[in-house]
Amino acid sequence: MQVESSPSTKDKAVKMLRAHGAFWRQNTRDSSRTLSMSGAVAEVILTWHIATSLLETKQQQQLPTSPSRSRRTAARLSRYCAYLVAFRPELLPDDREGTERIYKDLKKGIKAALGGARGYYLSSERSRHETIRALPAKLASADADMTVLERGAVLGKQLVNDEAGDGAVWEMLADVWVELVVYVSPSRAEEHAKGHEATLVQGSELVTLLWVLSTHTGIARPDHEGEVDQPAPALA
Fold it and tell me: The whole model's pTM is what?
C-alpha cells in the first residue's frame, strides 16, 4: 500500500519502525521532530497503541461516522498487539520479564498522569485520553528520555494534527500495524517456541499462526537495522 500521509507523520512512522528493525519500503528522511525510541518490542507496540487510540477517540468525538477499512484494521490490530503485551508476553520475541516490566511501568505512569488510582479507575476513557493528549504541552522537548506514555502522547498529537480527513493517516497506521504484527511473529528463542506450541494446543492466536508460517518457511525477524535473526527452529 502506498502511504500518502504528510511528510512529518510519514517520517515518524518510517524512522521509528526502522529503528526497531521492521522492514519498510519507504525511504527514510531526516526530521528534527523524529521521535527517538528504544529497541524493546513492547515499547514500540504500546507507543503506537497509545497514539492510535488517541487519534481514534478524537475522531469519534469529531466525526461519529462509520470508520474506514484502514481505520478498522489499524484499531483492531492496535488493540490485539496491546493485548499480547498485557496478557500474552510469552508470545512476543523479547524477554517476557522485560515486557511485563514495560507494561507495569506504563500503567504506573498512566495512574500518575491521572492523579492516582482514583482517577485511573473512575475516569471515563474519553477523560483519560484527553488528559494524555495534554501531556506533550508539559514536556520540555521530545527526546529519547521520554517515557512510553509521553512518546505515545507526542505521536498521538502529531497524528491528530496531520489527519486531514482524507484517510491517509489511517492508511499509514494500518500499514504500521500490519508490519508490526508480521515483525513480531518470528522467533528462534526456545521460550517463545514453547509458548506458541502451547497456544496451538489451547486454540489459536493470530501471532501464533504467523509464527508457524514463518517457522516452516524460514522467515527470520531482523534484530537490528541491517542485522537479520536466524530462522526459527522447526516444530517437533
Answer: 0.73
